[in-house]
Specification:
Layout: H1 4-121
């Protein structure tokens, strides 16, 4: 048979065991809550990273579009410059034609004057 002291010791051990189990249960609950919080933080972080990735993709697309626009503008400017050079060349050609025409008119005028002088001399 067990003595009174053994029974009391066993009861104290049971009380201590229950207290330890209660403490462990509380620790498990806190750990579970912390894990839940960490999971929420991870989910938010993942969402933020996804959003940042989308923003980076949009920015990359915008930069690509801007670069294409810049290239198109450069091409258009080159074309306009070529047209400008061609127009200048045409103007020079027209100016030369006008000068030749003026020379021809002067020559015709001199011929007419000579002809008139000859006619009036006769």
């Amino acid at each position: 048979m067990r003595t009174q002291q053994q029974v009391q010791s066993q009861q104290q051990l049971q009380v201590q065991n229950r207290a330890q189990l209660k403490t462990q249960d509380q620790l498990l609950k806190r750990t579970r809550d912390q894990l839940k919080t960490q999971d929420q933080v991870l989910t938010r972080t993942r969402d933020q990273l996804r959003t940042q990735d989308q923003l980076l993709t949009q920015t990359r697309d915008q930069l690509k579009s801007q670069d294409q626009t810049k290239t198109q503008t450069r091409d258009q400017l080159q074309i306009q410059e070529q047209i400008h050079v061609q127009t200048l060349d045409q103007l020079k050609t027209q100016e030369q034609v006008q000068l030749k025409t003026l020379d021809q008119l002067k020559t015709q005028e001199q011929v007419q004057l000579k002809t008139r002088d000859q006619l009036t001399a006769n």
